[in-house]
Amino acid sequence: MGRISSVPDPASLSVWSRLADRAYGLRDSILASQRFQIMAARFPLTRRISAKRARDCFDLCAGFVYSQVLFACVKLDLFELLARRPLSVAEVARQTKLNEDAARRLLLAAASLDLLQDRGEDRFGLGQIGAAMRANPGVKAMIEHHAMFYADMADPVALLRGEVTETKLARYWPYADGIDPASLASSDVAPYTSLMATSQQFVATDVLDAYDVSRHKRLMDVGGGDGSFLRSAAARAPALDLTLFDLPAVVETARPRFSAAGLADRAMLVGGSFSHNPLPRGADLVTLVRIAHDHSDDSVEKLLAAIFAALEPGGTILIAEPMAGDANSAPMADAYFGFYLLAMGKGRARKPSELITMLTRSGFVAPRQIAMPRPLLSGLIQARKPGI
User: Fold this and answer.
1) In this predicted model, what pLDDT tens digit does every residue of 176-209 receive, in sequence order?
2) If we measure between CA atoms, which residue out of 342, 350, 341 comes closest to residue 322?
3) Do residues 382 and 211 make contact, with C-beta atoms less than 8 angstroms apart?
4) CA–CA separation, 42 vs 39, rounded Å?
5) Domains parsed from the chain with CATH numbers
6) Which one of 59, 252, 267, 323 has the minimum C-beta count within 10 Å?
7) What three-state secondary structure class fits 125?
8) Where are the alpha helices (DSSP H) in 76-219?
9) What is the dihedral of CA 257, 259, 264, 266, to 10 degrees?
10) How far apart (Å, rounded) are the C-alpha atoms in residues 129 and 316?
């Protein structure tokens, strides 16, 4: 079920929409005036706003350069190198095999972005953002992964027009390229399974902080990868039984991890594809963590129907992923994932209202959005299957 869009007839718009369009048109014409821009930059009450808007415009133009500065820091392992102690430019040059001019150029660029900090006397240490990145091992993996995404985005207009016939991201996520998911081997799924596991920590923490899973008896995580989310949930709720459902090759990578965590007796690991196989029954809580946005509307509708059939009466479903249509999450959902999923070849970020409509159509009741501590990373929606 795809979305159908059309150009609205201006006469069919509400009075408020027409008035708003006129007001926005007036605003846009004023902001586009060079005379107004010069005046705003000089006037004391608007000077700071004008400077911020200029910085915002420049950041949009320079964003790719910023990301490549970050990529260089990660590739050269600068955050780990400088975590021990501040180093001189000469020391950084020697340890990264750069000449001193190149090292200084990179260090100054990274310091301007708060990745590093100029400590004086030609020395540099970690900046606040660089220090924070060290706390999340998934960040480094995602930054390195972005090399493929940036290659696919070399010509965004060609990507939008469908003129790019093969993308690196579609090859990286093989199930997105029309391949029968059940036929994938361990070597096909290992790279993305590892990436999802390393980038799962903060999302799992936020979901488990927002929703108490200990009120349930059995949690089934659909598309749960190597089981990172389930293992985090098990630590929060020692009496909770676990079910992992994912592709057979993915499940095999998860099995030793559950054993190593001492959870083999609590966890049922089931390999299959939701598009071809029924989901295991018996869970009173089912989670979709960063799964729905990877799939088309038709696939999501089928998945929700399968979950509804498998879930115990009165059971709960949780959908956690970046969600569109909100100012807090728009940069992640609408901009980043909008193009990432386009390059991947399927899926889209959805508004909470769209997911709630899908849940209702599938038979779920009382859908509601749950506040998350970091909505940029993930939104959260809960709904129930009616009881007996």
Assistant:
1) 545 556 565 565 565 566 666 666 777 899 999 9
2) 350
3) yes
4) 5
5) 17-62 (no CATH), 76-135 (1.10.10.10), 168-384 (3.40.50.150)
6) 59
7) strand
8) 78-84, 89-96, 100-112, 128-133, 137-152, 156-160, 168-172, 186-198, 201-210
9) -60
10) 37
